[in-house]
Design a protein that fits this description.
With 197 residues, the chain is mostly helical. Among the domains are: 77 residues; 54 residues, no CATH class. The chain has 9 helices and no strands. The radius of gyration is 33 Å and the shape is elongated.
Length: 197
Amino acid sequence: MPLPGGVPITQILFPHSPSPIPGFGAVAPMPLPAFAHMAPLPPYPLPPSEWESTIVPKYHKITFETYDGRDDPLGWLNECEQFFRGQLTREVDKVWMASYHLKGVTQQWYLVLETDIGCPSWLDFRRYCLQRFGPALNTNHLADLARLPFGSNVDAYMEAFQARAAHAGDLTMLQRAKLFTGGLPDYIRVDVEMHQP
């Protein structure tokens, strides 16, 4: 009569094996190959085109902000680039992902842009977005930076300075420091310049 849980493995009759079952004490250690003492070789790197298509991205829990066109797009575009870097986003997916996060006027703008020229590259998308929603193209950002008036406090001045410096082009750290301190009132500027920023 079979048991309700089945037959225990010790009661199953297996066919006889022609090979004897060795005992653990009788087993001789296997010789190691001649190269076993060497460190393992790293895997051969794939060419970049194959490498990009075979990697499964490691996703991080980061948010992708939306953009509605009310503010300067430079900060949002830089956040997009950080997101793409963190998520290992392929170049062909960047514009699609960014355009998905456009809202209101910016979404309508992108729809017209895509209808007119097709899907742009990420660099073109970035340039078009800055042209449409960023500061006016005829603005001399470096002159604005040099003439930036000091308001009520250093924090507000620094925030306005950084916003304009982002559009001013390539400046060295020394140039930025001199432009920054040059706009401070004398009673603050002298103290800051003594520390040689």
